[in-house]
Request: fold
Amino acid sequence: MLLPAIPVWKQAPFLRVLLPLSGGILLQWYYPFSLSLIYNAIFATAVFIAVSYLLKGYLLFRYKWIWGVWLTLASIILGAWITQGKNIQHRKEWFGHYYNHKTSVIAVLEEPLIEKNRSYKALAKVYALSAEDSFVKTAGHIIIYFQKDSILPNRLNLGSVIIFNKPLQPITNTGNPGAFDYKRYCLFQSVTHQVFLITKDFAIAPGHYGSSFSQWLHHSRAAFLHILGKYLHGREETAIAEALLMGYREHLDRDLVQAYSNTGVVHIIAISGMHLAMIYGLLLVLLKPLQKRQKANLLRGCIILIILWTFAFISGGGASVLRSTVMFSFIIVGQYVNRQVSVYHTLSASAFFLLCYNPFYLWDVGFQLSYAAVLSIVIFLRPITNLFYLKNKIAHYIWKLIAVTLAAQVLTIPLSIYHFHQLPNLFLLSNLLIVPLSGLILYSELLLCATAFIEPLAIAIGYVISIMLKAMNTIILWINALPFAVSNNILLSVVQTLLLYVVIIFIAVWLLQKKKQYFKYALLVMLLIITVRSIRIFTTRSNRIIVYNVPGHSAIDFASSGNFTFIGDDSCRRDAFISNFYINPSRLIYRINPSDSLPALKKISPFIYFSGKKFLLLNDTATIPDFDNAPKPDIIILSKNAPFSIAGLHAQFNCSQYVFDASNNRWKTREWKNDCDSLHLRRHFVAEDGAFVFEF
Reply:
């Protein structure tokens, strides 16, 4: 089989607008155009269309290339325009344009309360802002954290309206090097602020708001979750079942999710194209009797579309599930208009319409992996399957499963490494065991929901599902515990990831089209990747101290020559979530490894001497010895609400740089910041300013 390199433009004409559309989205986000420039471009495009229509025959005959250029520019403009409009901060009705601390916020909850360790959490729409003599209807979303209260879930639900005037806090990033861009993630969902409310901070308005369809989706989702919770056994088993069927992940154990990720089957617990394909296949079988007559066949198609889209909305409407739903919709519609459409055309068309609906899907990991996996299977499945032919049906079925898994990995591995910095080495084994089992579990869960009104049958089905779920979790944990199950801490930059895709393309052309010169091209690009990687490693091997922003904790890395020594709270070492979310990304981008002792590091409490620099670390238990001639530290780091005044420290040590870590209370740091400002001293509070990184 040859790669569809040249014919793909004819098979998938939507690619001609999808690629420039994506380019316009990226340009508008990273190098934004002014709104007036976009409107002028739209006007110029409209004029061009009008003139072209009048001179259609002449232009098509004499200047065919003009249409290609115009289509590309028009797609770029469209991408920029929808990106500008989708950004909530650019809309006139965004509440941030009108909000101040004196206004009251009228918010509508858009989801039921989600229980956290110390609070309840809910997403809310800012319906309006109210002041003494004004009322402004607004748009935009906030995250509300409510103080734990046993009766609160009974008082607040989807559509509840609350009124409060507690100051909203902008959503910010931790500022730790390499950390997840949580602020951008929230902005892509029109969420820009957050607030913590206790019972006396808000009032509940009478009535409920929201569409009847949203209410129905919520009640349907809650009903399915209730059935699973009622008939399944085991907390972890029920949590996996909720994620597998409904995409509900709030009850998942972090360590178990990490095990699924390490073994390369995390897509099992994230609603994706695999789930839609299973449901689509089941519907085809169940509705096959309707296929015989034309009108009944039309009814069959409508039923399938309604069920698929309903499932997509109930499961949360993620990018990957929407991609699958749109694709299957195109396939179904194509069957009824007697059009056989290329899968490349279906892929590109679905991506085009989804990006027009929400351009920020372009940054969605699920969106990227979903399209990469499908495209990879379409291109490479047949060549891989044809490598072996097995007469035994069972062996041939197993080989087909292996081939699908291998084909899907070809184009998804670079993205997986780029986003998650790891490579599941045993993905083939885990997929071979888990994918068939998860499919059986999914069908069983659907059967359970359909027969829940027959309690004895539902109890029996729930018992069987629980056994299968426990077996699946056991297999995952067993594979995860095997040596070399996963390769961690693999760092790829955007450039390296793109170059790796070039290598894959060249190797594929070499193997599938037997063009030997492309193997040489692949080697050259690999050499370029190694060169870029070596330069990055060399440039990151400097001395640095990193004071991390870990809320409520003290965490400091001293790094030199590719190694680091950690000084801080033991909980930052023990808690996998704290390490992975707050600290490890920095160690990854700086390419540093743990070391019990650094030759350049010397501790003489409360001082630390590091590569010719002196640091003074003070916490709530520290004492300062008497000095005849106190050594002048380069930086003083204060943690745990250390009982020292800035004026006293400055008088004794004459240090000009102070750092307050995230273990300090805000009232204490407020005093320290005021003292630093009055004495004209440099200060850095990591909870507000992000991690403090000092390189030398």
User: Anything to note?
Assistant: Residues 393-420 form the longest helix (28 residues). Residues 494-539 form one domain. The longest strand covers residues 119-130. DSSP finds 25 helices and 22 strands in the chain.
